[in-house]
Amino acid sequence: xxxxxxxxxxxxxxxxxxxxxxxxxxxxxxxxxxxxxxxxxxxxxxxxxxxxxxxxxxxxxxxxxxxxxxxxxxxxxxxxxxxxxxxxxxxxxxxxxxxxxxxxxxxxxxxxxxxxxxxxxxxxxxxxxxxxxxxxxxxxxxxxxxxxxxxxxxxxxxxxxxxxxxxxxxxxxxxxxxxxxxxxxxxxxxxxxxxxxxxxxxxxxxxxxxxxxxxxxxxxxxxxxxxxxxxxxxxxxxxxxxxxxxxxxxxxxxxxxxxxxxxxxxxxxxxxxxxxxxxxxxxxxxxxxxxxxxxxxxxxxxxxxxxxxxxxxxxxxxxxxxxxxxxxxxxxxxxxxxxxxxxxxxxxxxxxxxxxxxxxxxxxxxxxxxxxxxxxxxxxxxxxxxxxxxxxxxxxxxxxxxxxxxxxxxxxxxxxxxxxxxxxxxxxxxxxxxxxxxxxxxxxxxxxxxxxxxxxxxxxxxxxxxxxxxxxxxxxxxxxxxxxxxxxxxxxxxxxxxxxxxxxxxxxxxxxxxxxxxxxxxxxxxxxxxxxxxxxxxxxxxxxxxxxxxxxxxxxxxxxxxxxxxxxxxxxxxxxxxxxxxxxxxxxxxxxxxxxxxxxxxxxxxxxxxxxxxxxxxxxxxxxxxxxxxxxxxxxxxxxxxxxxxxxxxxxxxxxxxxxxxxxxxxxxxxxxxxxx
Length: 677
Hints:
The structure is a single chain. Helix 4 (168-178) crosses helix 5 (194-203). Strand 26 (541-550), helix 16 (558-568) and strand 27 (577-580) form a beta-alpha-beta unit. It is globular, with a radius of gyration of 25 Å. With 677 residues, it is α/β, with parallel strands linked by helices.
């Protein structure tokens, strides 16, 4: 079909620094071919900043079809607000006494959620937060996270979620880049002291010049910080009034969050997120899951992740379902909570469901309340989908695809789709979203042929914070987001993500960009050069493998290098495998041939007894590899066969024993990766 008129490009150059909160414009798709745009006289407003013109278009109700004739009805529920302050108020009015959150012994209703949100917002205003100021949130799933996030939005602030796996230097970069004025965090989660980590990072030059205050949500309160309880009680009457004024002025087009995702440059980019796009997309998501008031969602997906905030907190508030925060996955603890909390809805990556299905003690637990599940971020076998329905009792199991740049969601399966379709695709476009599959020259490819997935519609981000160059590279002049994912679309419009153009892999649902890992590892004194790739893993989808060219002085020991990496970066970024090589294969332009490394790593990893992801390797190196700590052996030049040598195995203690036979690489592990951020 012919392309609709392109949306106006309104990407801001400095959204957080703008005087107005309305710093981002929803990206709407054009009207059907031959149909003129219709704008409501009252639907156009201009921000106070000359840099940003905010135009809201009003479209007639219509079917949004892809070129194969499939469609979803593009109807927006007018009773659902497009911003979070109004959404929380609506939930309080509609579901008042229904339990909104249960976290251990702590329980609150939707009416109490609104009250606590208002108090937090008033405290933020009283502490000098201005509209558009950034607020960092570095904490695990907990009821305080929800209050801090909703309070920030009510006060006109911008949430900057920080990955709980980050170390001090990583968190400092994100918070400094966003110019965070205040930080909500915790002390003691998994033994970490985030405040201490930030101080250590500052001593190394990784400072956060904009940060004025740190509030501790849970744990001890170090000197110079404030407890969350003391912070909220400082709210003033004037603070409540001003927060209410800001809430009344909130729109779905405001800049609500900046979610940082790393990239091929190795430096995290801040994706600008609009509340209206989240609420619209995940209202459809809630429909597909048949969510309703009284449902109880166990949220294992971290709140800092798009799948956590957008895909869990949001639909629960929209539908009046109870949020059950769960900070760390452990199969028995999860089964216990499902039984005791009467969980009905469970989102999560495939590894969670596979662990439950395979757990020997599953029959000891009553999990009969489970009804709906949604999964993504890694390939899922048909057998697992069937087992989720038959063994775990889910009535609905669906998959979806999204990325941070699409506000977490772009395609989704339908509740009635058969297991084979759910397992082999990531669904079709949401209502209001267009998809294209194109070749390297930008031409549409035939049905069933692979090509890059392009997305256009309200779900597309306005761009990257203070980075117009990367924004222009990712979103073209016609509003198409170039995802970098290779997919195949069938005749029904369902997509199957088969590969990616970008140098990235997904470890247990977390995106890992090798360039970022390589940049950090290059600082190690015993490393001359390093190249990192993702290799298949049955449990986590993919894990990292590092090819290390040692410095002339000495080759690094694997265990010491792994320990060093864990001090420098989030644990999911730390490679599982380390191999010493004499040189990296290069092309004529002196770029590393990572396709060559992937071919070689497949042989090495599949030869290892740790292939299944359980770390049960032997001290005998696989055929063609040397044991840990051996000096590097000969390597091939580009395009030439030859051995490589290993400095590690699976990263866990090895048991002595003979070399194990080689294992076949499961082919399905090279396939889809869904719902990533």
